[in-house]
Amino acid sequence: MAKSIQTSENDADGRFHTTHWSVVYAVRTTDERRQREIIGDLAIRYWRPVYCYLRRKGYREAKAKDLTQGFFCDIVLGRELIQHADRTKGRFRTLLLTALERYIVSIHRKEGRRKRQPKRGIRQLDMDEFSKLKIPQTQMEPDEAFYYTWAADLIDLVLAELKDEYCSTEKTGHWEVFWLKIVAPIMNNEEAPSYADICSQYGIENESRASNMVITVKRRFRTILKRHLRDLVQSDSEVVDELREVFAILSQSGAE
Q1: Domain annotation covers residue 127
Q2: In 3D, which of 210, 55, 34, 237 has the Cα closest to residue 144?
Q3: Are 69 and 116 in contact (CB under 8 A)?
Q4: Do residues 173 and 214 make contact, with C-beta atoms less than 8 angstroms apart?
Q5: Closest CA to 204 of 214, 218, 190
Q6: Rounded to an integer, what is the distance from CA 189 to the centroid of its chain?
Q7: Torsion angle (degrees, nearest 10) of CA 181, 186, 190, 193
Q8: Within a domain: residue 7?
Q9: What is the pLDDT of residues 165-219, one digit of tens each?
Q10: What angle do CA 183, 46, 92 make, to 5 degrees?
């Protein structure tokens, strides 16, 4: 997890959704209007990693916006990238990054083309969101920024779901203690408060109780994360590898 994660900043319903392969494959079996809707949703869900990659490539904000739009319109939709996606050949995010890298190479040969606009009704990305997005650390390579943003958005999604789950019940205190002890210190790069201080602040009977609350939420966090990761792989056995990769991406960025 990283300091730049904002649990309220994501797509239309306030969350970043990982790609479900069943949805990707649905593009091949549905009508053209529904195909455009699905691909438009994918664009909204993946524009952040694409945009961060482009900014780390050295493109200024306006150019990176234009290229992000162009990538989803020209490549993802125009060249039917989704229709040819195959989960047996690797991760969807890797397919997307490879296509993006090739797109940038081709763009260098076609500089001066008119500004791209969504084709055939694909949903246009919200330009205001680009200005709000915090670009990953300057020492990251473009591909590292892509994967880092993807992983951070995934953690954002899990935290948002976790918060909703606990705050919609009578266990809001569990979430607040977990946030104070685990999440806030990581996001703010500060030392975590002691369990004694947490007990004093929230009126918890003892430190053992506070510790158990944190452990309970951490277990639930991991369960939700693994459920989302299951959508990205072919079998349950691969979830462990995906889980390891998520934390490796974040830890390499000083974010775990």
Answers
A1: yes
A2: 55
A3: yes
A4: no
A5: 214
A6: 21
A7: 0
A8: no
A9: 999 988 999 999 999 999 988 888 889 999 999 999 999 999 999 999 999 999 9
A10: 100
Residues 6+ apart with CB under 8 A from 238: none
| DSSP sequence for 185-232 | HHHHT-PPPPHHHHHHHHT-S-HHHHHHHHHHHHHHHHHHHHHHHHTT
Q: Which residue has the tokens 């997005």?
A: 133
Quick one: tokens of 228? 């989302």
Structural domains of the chain, count = 1
Boundaries of domain holding 129: 21-252
In the block, residue with structure tokens 């989960």: 87
Q: Measured in whole angstroms, how far is the alpha carbon of residue 205 from the centre of its chain?
A: 37
Q: Residues 208, 145: contact at Cβ < 8 Å?
A: no
Structure tokens at 112: 């001066």
pTM of the model as a whole: 0.67
87: Cβ contacts below 8 Å, ≥ 6 apart: 21, 24, 233, 234
Cβ-based neighbour number of residue 240 at 10 Å: 12
Q: What is the pLDDT of residues 120-176, one digit of tens each?
A: 444 454 545 444 455 565 678 889 888 888 888 889 889 999 999 999 988 999 999
